[in-house]
Amino acid sequence: MLWRPTYQPLFRDLMRLNREMDRTFGLRQTNGSSFTPPINIWMNEEDMIVSAELPGFDAASMDISVENNVLSISGDRETAAADVDGKTLRRERYGGGFNRSINLPYRVELDAINANFSNGVLTIELPRAAEDKPRKITITSA
Fold this sequence. Notes:
With 142 residues, the chain is mainly beta.
């Protein structure tokens, strides 16, 4: 009898759980690329900040857009060419494009969005639209 490792169903279940978590929290990879930049998201009542690690990318090769309360970030990076003649033994650096989409929890001021790319980290500030901010209502007594 041939022994078969039992971890394959576990990895399949973990990948399915990962996809479900991304879908639940509004994070989705919209193309079939194998590169998904890691992101961090911070939010308060005034604004939201999205930070993405994109080493090796150029700001000119990236696009950012907001449409229907969805932030989309995409970019492209060329594969590094081999410096020497011969056979590639290992290739771990990804070259190609990516596309990340994030469902925003509220409307944003489109004209006030600020994006900065420094040291391989893209930071996007998304101020909350004034009409979408919570308002405190004063209660008066009669």
